[in-house]
Specification:
Blueprint: H1 2-14, H2 19-35, H3 38-66, H4 75-102, H5 109-137, H6 150-173, H7 179-213, H8 221-229, H9 233-236
Helix pairs in contact: 1-2, 3-4, 4-5, 5-6, 6-7
């Protein structure tokens, strides 16, 4: 963890904030990593997991509304499921961030180029796993969900694009050394989170519309592309 912070995470932050701000951040992180504050790290992890589980319960309610399904699961069942989904989704999201952040620093030259491209494929696969788990197990009716569904592809691609835009803004546009820049980052981060949530719900709604049109059968992305490219009745005639 110390090497990840010092080699991958700390350098970009150092050049974007004022020296006092960076010193405070670096001191806090180094203090936690050096002293091995197991209790503090455990408490922070539990709080983060709790907040993520609350978010999972909100997603469960939203998916039930989209699928027009009444909640029939017990309170205990929903609590256990939201906790399990929080763990799985949290691990996938954290792993995707680490892959994108750390991967470029483990190889140079031609191998570095391959790793730089492959990290986005791995991150997309992790995001796809998180989306698939949510779509399959969060709603009460347990619909059959294709891993390559149109909504899932829309969510993953949109998340990647939004994350890239946010990264470009944070690394090349934002100026955290001014008061306005420091305030703006919270507004942009809030907009990024809101956009990500909206993208997920739009993707789910799109999958539900396509599922209803196909008589309840999941329609994969590749299948929809083939249908769009296939010649119509007029062309056949």
């Amino acid at each position: 963890m110390k090497s990840v912070w010092r080699d991958s995470l700390a350098p970009p932050i150092k050049h974007r904030v004022t020296p006092p701000v960076y010193d405070a951040i670096n001191f806090s992180v180094e203090k936690i990593l050096h002293d091995g504050s197991t209790g503090l790290i455990a408490l922070a992890s539990v709080l983060a997991l709790w907040n993520l589980a609350v978010g999972m319960r909100t997603i469960m309610q939203a998916l039930n509304t989209i699928h027009e399904t009444e909640e029939t699961r017990s309170l205990l069942h929903r609590a256990a499921l939201s906790l399990a989904l929080a763990v799985v989704v949290g691990v996938c999201l954290l792993a995707s961030v680490l892959v994108v952040t750390v991967a470029p620093r483990i190889a140079d030259g031609g191998l570095g180029v391959l790793v730089g491209i492959g990290r986005w494929l791995v991150a997309a696969a992790l995001l796809g796993a998180a989306v698939g788990m949510l779509l399959r197990y969060a709603p009460a009716e347990r619909p059959e969900v294709g891993w390559e569904s149109v909504g899932s592809v829309l969510v993953i691609v949109s998340w990647v694009v939004a994350s890239l835009l946010f990264r470009v803004w944070a690394t090349s546009v934002a100026d955290f050394k001014t008061a306005v820049g420091s305030l703006t980052v919270f507004l942009v981060l809030t907009a990024y989170i809101f956009t990500s949530s909206a993208i997920f719900l739009v993707g789910v709604e799109l999958d539900e519309v396509l599922r209803q049109e196909s008589g309840g059968k999941p329609r994969g992305f590749a299948q929809l592309v083939r249908e769009l490219l296939a010649p119509g009745p007029a062309a056949n005639g």
